[in-house]
Design brief:
Number of strands: 15
Number of helices: 19
Distance between the termini: 53 Å
Strand order of the largest sheet: 3-2-1-4-15
Number of domains: 3
CATH class of the largest domain: Alpha Beta
Largest sheet: 5 strands, parallel
Length: about 475
């Protein structure tokens, strides 16, 4: 056995094939192409099947990674997806956008050889295999009823990752769940934020259809705080409420010129392009005005999404990433940075904007920046960027997209009496995701600030368990 494990450890990780950069900048199809059956089986066979698999501990939703990978290695693809779906109702999403390199793969024992199992790609393979066969099995669920025989209902506010996960987990144990969504399609950031080439819309729709088959119901164009209040939901018979509205208010630079025409927050830019179906160009000629030279401020995943989408838009000749630290401090996934470079994005590092310059008509014509150097680590643990006096310079651009993160949207929280918020405006919750209002729970970005899809899903899953325990005690 020891010799076999040494042999497995020496085998190289099988990388997923991708579209070539010169081809993909001309389309909106997925960049990674997915594993073939043979590739998936061979990658799964590399797994050491540890007695105490730390990869499971590294997963925010605690998928039984060891078991599903073993089943793939034995060509039991149906068994693999069934194993995943016990803990995760959105496997095709997670396999594409979760930062596995920081979570499950970081905990993989093979990380010692810098050659961890490609867990994300295997999860994607299992989910896509199920979709390809068209055989999606729905578990038989016994409905939870109250003392007079009526279904016990839970309201979910927001259909992003945390809301979808919470609703799905509650539906699996028999609750009637209704998701109230402010917009006209379910998915939140999965539909309106992440670009088509990273997470196709049909993948999100597929996952939502599975939730519907579990019994999850959706009410669209429903703004809680306006259409209904939290009190209205309880009066409608819901026994508990989960708030998963995310943190959708963009953060800006606070420099002169941010009100010029041609400045979009990354949220607005991505939402417009997704909602207006720019990924279906030329079938949909989206009316989002973008010039020839684009500057994206920031270096997180959203910044990479905005820059890579801008690179694909008609008429755009040059896209810059402007970031005040070095590449080592970039918060974006390594693979997203790599793909951006391959696609010709220009990286202006150790550079900080100080002014956006406009023309006589009020449109952006340039951005003034200053060079930075790194000092001692700050509260984030990263070295603090310090301006270098006299190093100002100009970059000619006609579109500027700040991608600096988001903060809590006050639309819901400001209208809910007795809902305790922290100093940043996020909802405070206890260890069971309960807010200051009995029966009202919350999770995801509205409680933590901007985080990952899988972190929000983990919060939704844990909140579902807490809601179940709460309702049992009523």
């Amino acid at each position: 056995m020891a010799e076999e494990n040494i042999s497995k450890a020496k085998k190289q990780r099988i990388k997923m094939q991708e579209q070539k950069p010169e081809e993909r900048i001309k389309n909106f199809f997925e960049v990674p192409l997915g594993y073939t059956e043979e590739e998936a089986i061979n990658e799964a066979k590399r797994c050491l099947q540890c007695k105490e698999p730390k990869c499971i501990q590294g997963c925010p939703v605690n998928i039984n990674i060891k078991e599903f990978i073993y089943k793939i290695s034995k060509k039991d693809f149906k068994g693999a997806i069934d194993t995943i779906k016990k803990d995760n109702s959105l496997p095709a999403v997670c396999g594409r956008v979760c930062p596995q390199e920081e979570q499950c793969e970081a905990a993989c024992i093979m990380q010692k050889t810098k050659n961890p199992i490609n867990i994300g790609s295997l999860e994607r393979f299992a989910a896509d295999y199920e979709a390809k066969t068209g055989k999606v099995e729905i578990p038989v669920i016994g409905k939870k009823l109250d003392k007079v025989g009526n279904p016990i209902r839970v309201a979910i506010i927001g259909s992003g990752p945390s809301g979808l996960t919470c609703a799905g987990d509650l539906a699996k144990i028999g609750y009637e769940t209704v998701i109230y969504e402010a917009l006209h399609l379910p998915g939140g950031v999965l539909i309106y934020g992440i670009p088509e080439f990273r997470l196709p819309k049909n993948i999100v729709k597929r996952e939502v259809e599975y939730l519907k088959k579990l019994g999850v119901k959706f009410e669209f164009n429903s703004v809680i705080g306006k259409t209904y209040t939290i009190d209205d939901l309880f009066n409608m018979g819901f026994k508990a409420v989960f708030i998963g509205v995310g943190a959708g208010t963009p953060i800006f630079l606070g420099i002169p010129g941010e009100n010029l025409k041609g400045v979009y927050s990354a949220n607005e830019f991505l939402t417009r392009l997704n909602a207006m179906k720019a990924f279906l160009f030329p079938e949909y000629d989206t009316p989002v005005k973008v010039g020839e030279k684009v500057a994206v401020i920031g270096a997180g995943n959203v910044a990479m999404d905005a820059a890579r989408w801008a690179r694909r838009l008609k008429g755009v000749k040059e896209v810059h990433i402007i970031y005040r630290r070095s590449e080592a401090e970039m918060p974006a996934r390594i693979e997203e940075i790599k793909r951006a470079k391959e696609e010709g994005i220009i990286f202006n590092l150790l550079t900080n904007p100080v002014e956006i310059i406009g023309n006589e008509q009020g449109w952006v014509k340039a951005i003034k920046c200053i060079k930075m150097e790194l000092g001692e680590p700050d509260s984030s643990g990263r070295r603090k960027p310090i301006p270098m006096p006299g190093s100002e310079f100009i970059i000619d651009v006609d579109t500027v997209i700040p991608a600096l993160g988001t903060k809590a949207n006050k639309l819901l929280t400001s209208d809910v009496k007795n809902l305790k918020l922290n100093k940043w405006g996020y909802i405070e919750v206890d260890e069971n995701y309960m807010t200051s209002i009995p029966g009202v729970f919350a999770g995801g970005d509205i409680t933590t600030g901007s985080a990952t899809v899988i972190a929000a899903m983990g919060a939704g899953r844990r909140a579902a368990k807490a809601i179940d325990e709460y309702i049992k005690k009523l």
